[in-house]
Structure formats: C-alpha cells, structure tokens
Specification:
Layout: H1 3-10, H2 25-31, H3 35-67, H4 78-113, E1 119-121, E2 127-129, H5 141-147, H6 158-175, H7 177-180, E3 189-191, H8 194-223, H9 231-247, E4 255-257, H10 261-265, H11 273-282
Antiparallel strand pairs: 1-2, 3-4
C-alpha cells in the first residue's frame, strides 16, 4: 500500500478529501542501479572493509605489545598463555594461507590473459625474441674465458652460454672426433675435455659457494622449528632438494649429454645471495619417477 494513501486516510477527520497521487513506475525504475554498478560497489566495499579490519588489527597489536611490560610472569596462567598463543598462530597461518591462495589465483588469471609472446622490434623492423633464455645478464669470469672474450663487463644470455658449449663440441667432432666421442655412447653424449673441462671446473667452484650458502640457510630455518605443513617447512624441503642438485655438480664429469649443459651453465650468471636463497626456497622438487 502506498504510504501517501495511508497518511491521507488518517487525516480524513481533519481535512476534506484529498486526491491520492497515482504511483509513477518510472520513479521506481530510476532508483534501481545497473547490475554491474552494484557489483562494483560490493567489490569496493569488500576491499575497504578488508583494509579497515587490517588497520584495527594493527592498532590492537600495538596495544598488546605495550601491555607486555605490565605482565607479571610469576602469576600469569601459563596454560592459558600457551592455548591463546596456539589459537593466535593458527589464525595467522590460516590468514597467510588464504592470502597466498588469493595471490596465486590472481597470478593465474594474469598469466592466462597474457597469451602473446613478448617481442621487441628493432630499427630494421624485424622482431627480436626477448624470452628469458635470450635476456642479457651479468656473467662470471669463467664464461668470458670459455667464450674467448677479454671484456669481462660484457653481458651474455643463457642461450649464449649453451651455444658456446655446443659450438665447441661441434668443432671438436669435426676436427678430432675420437677425443670427444663416448665409447658405446649415443650422438647426444660427449666427453668433457679440453677447455670445456676447465670451464666446468670453474662452475664447480661457484656451485660449492652456493652449497655453503644453502646449508647455512637450512640450519637457520630449522632452528626456528617450523610446524608441519607450514610454508617455512615446505621452504626447508625445497632448500634441501636444491642442495642435492648442487652437490651433483661439484666435480667435472667424464661425460655429459646435451640436456645436462644448462644445468651447469646457468650457474655462470651473477645473482645476489638473497636471490639465490629465494629461488631455492621457491623451487619445488620434481616428483621422483
């Protein structure tokens, strides 16, 4: 029932008949927002609420820290303290897990939307592939020496390193095939001889330094005694798996296959200690067949 009509009926004793206005349908329609606008408002509201709650939690955490100085450790209920701490840790772990899932979901969406390969067009109008293996990077001295480059400031790509090794193998196969051929081996295998052996020996030194770094990080992470199935525990597993891969490259092998080359040459590029540790923590070990 129209509210205006109700008020008019109540006012009959005081006034004469008053014409009841006819409801206008257009007014009702004009008050309804388009569905997409409603969705945008809801999404915006959800985001605002998220950050507002975050601010409240940060304020409460600051208040909690200020009360620590007033806590009497002799009279405090230790069981209640431990139970409260467990609940707190569980809430933090759950929040971190959901946040990571949200990040991964948005990353997958962004990856799906990026379907075109990134290419760079030079002055001649030709396309140049700028994929990761062709990106120019700062390189170790051993790679410059193997490639016969005197300018140690020159940058190389992972593809340059791989091509340098394959070119050396091809040249030896043409000029001195017996020196590099593996007895009863396939065409995909070759002996590690000459300057290739010297090159791999230089890589061994780099890998040994990385091993020391990874071992130190594992000890540091384990000392914190992370819980089972936590992010920290998974990172320790990843570090240990990476450590085993590194240990397989601390000496010069007698023979190699073409599929082994990048496993060595990828160590020829300069990375910060932080990046090495971060990459090792993120690299999930491949399931054993």
């Amino acid at each position: 029932m129209n509210t205006t009509s109700v008020s008019e009926k109540k006012g009959k004793k005081m006034t004469n008949k008053v014409a009841t206005p006819t409801p206008v349908k257009e007014d009702v329609v004009s008050e309804s927002a388009p569905i997409n606008e409603v969705n945008e408002v809801n999404e915006s509201s959800g985001n605002d609420t998220f950050f507002e709650l975050f601010d409240i939690i940060n304020e409460k955490m600051t208040e909690l820290q200020t009360t620590l100085s007033n806590v009497n450790v002799q009279t405090i209920d230790s069981k209640k303290l431990m139970d409260t701490r467990k609940k707190f840790d569980k809430s933090i772990m759950s929040f971190n897990s959901q946040t990571m899932e949200l990040y991964i979901s948005s990353l997958k969406t962004a990856t799906k939307n990026s379907t075109k390969k990134v290419k760079k067009v030079n002055e001649n109008g030709t396309s140049k592939d700028t994929s990761a293996v062709k990106q120019k990077l700062k390189a170790m001295k051993c790679l410059h020496e193997f490639l016969g480059k005197d300018n140690f400031d020159e940058d190389f790509s992972r593809n340059d390193a791989y091509t340098g090794v394959t070119s050396f193998i091809r040249e030896l196969r043409q000029n001195d095939p017996t020196s590099i051929a593996v007895e009863n081996g396939t065409n995909k295998e070759f002996k590690v001889v000459g300057k290739l052996s010297t090159f791999i020996s230089g890589i061994n030194v780099i890998v040994k330094d990385k091993i020391k770094m990874i071992e130190k990080e594992i000890k540091s992470c384990e000392s914190k005694k992370p819980g089972v199935d936590t992010k920290e525990a998974r990172e320790i597993d990843n570090l240990k798996a990476e450590l085993e891969k590194f240990k397989s490259k601390i000496s010069v092998p007698k023979k190699m296959a073409f599929t082994d080359i990048m496993g060595y040459t990828n160590h020829c590029f300069i990375m910060s200690n932080e990046d090495i540790i971060m990459k090792a923590k993120a690299n999930k070990p491949k399931p054993k067949k």
